[in-house]
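Are you able to produce any protein sequence you like plus the matching backbone structure tokens because I've never seen that pairing?
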Amino acid sequence: MVRRTLTALARGLGLFSLAVLGELVAVVMLVAVLLSFFAGLVFLFPPAVRLARAAARVNRRLVRAWAGVAIAEPYRPPPTPPAERAGEPGPGRCGPVMQGTALRLTWLLNDPATWRDLLFLLVVPWTGGLLVAAPVLLAAVGAVQLVSGAPLGLAWLVLAAAVAPRYAPWALRAYGYLAHALLGPTEKAELARQVRRLSAVRTEVVDAQAAELRRIERDLHDGAQARLVAVGMMIGTAERLLDTDRNAARAMLAKAREASADALHELRRIVRGIHPPVLAERGLGDAVRALALDCPLPTHVTIDLSARVAAPLESAAYFAISELLGNAARHAGATRAWVDIGHDGTTLRITVTDDGRGGADPARGTGLRGIERRIGAFDGVLTLSSPAGGPTTAVIELPQALPAPRPQPLTRRAIALVACGVLGWIPLVPQGFVPMVFKLTGVTAKSWFLGLHVAEPFQWPVIGGMILLGAGMLAFAAWPVLVHRAGVR
């Protein structure tokens, strides 16, 4: 408790100091705005905005690390610089440099996040800064008064020490929510960002589908189609040899049968590359187990799924696992691999680990980029940890992959537990402890207390019975929770 309180106080003081520095940055930006619009010194505006955005980014990072509130950047994407024109600019036209400067200035002026950053830097010292630093400032005031001989100094110190354990963590969260309200994207900006991301994902998915179709056509043309053509030629040759050389015709038919078997095997391989039959028939778990059996690495598979995953998500997850296991076998020099498939509510979480040499990087290969494109169509996320020397751990999360659990209807036992938890206080406190206090202190008011309305010899038994009844009801309501916590520990 003491360590957590001191950590929260130190973080609050750090955020307050950052807020004070942010106030100075806001003043600099205000001066730059005034000089830009009233003195024509527009070249001062972009550097001032960059300084304010740097201060806002530091606030976002610290709020995420210290307050646990993640804040996405709300800034609009920068404009595309104009293409350079050949020759000198003509009359009434400006060159690419001036056009780029004008576009950049317009982008910064029209971005609402520019002015929201300025508003945050202006108001946060007097709102969130004082909020998180209140215990430290209170203790500082108390210390100053104590040194100066004021009688309230010790009281301020005691008050700061008393409220700090509860107040400091809450104040950090409150600062985080305030920062999120001003530094986070607005609903319109968030929708625009999602549209841009979905457009990029759509482009990548279309490109990936086109590449997949080209791969399937190439495999069919170079593999199965060529083998089937060879089978037809062998059968035609055998037909011509039937009348002249039956042994040669028989041998040619045997070769045709082998070629047809190879063509069938090639077709099955292509079908498995499109959508494995075991995946469609038996689901992701059994399909991954079958994939592990075909993998050249010894692969341990753990499956924990509460329901069947939707077919498109199953396909994306299956081929992502296949690609990761293939990378571990071909490129990582691994000797073992582990696949863990579980869920967190409706989110499907897949972890693939190998003991290879590590060093995997999506920027240096197309396989991992292909996985990101495939799962990105479903808002999936790939997290890769692959230090040099290994091991490599890839975590895939696919949100909304599993159906949400339906709420179970209340049973009679649940209704009884809720009723005891809600009503157990009535016999325990108003009908038990309160009349007991009245009896011990000699208060004669009977009010609506049942134990005081019965005859004198039965008053204490009734009061004791009420206390036992209320305590028993509350114990009955709390017993499942206590048993569950004991089991968890």
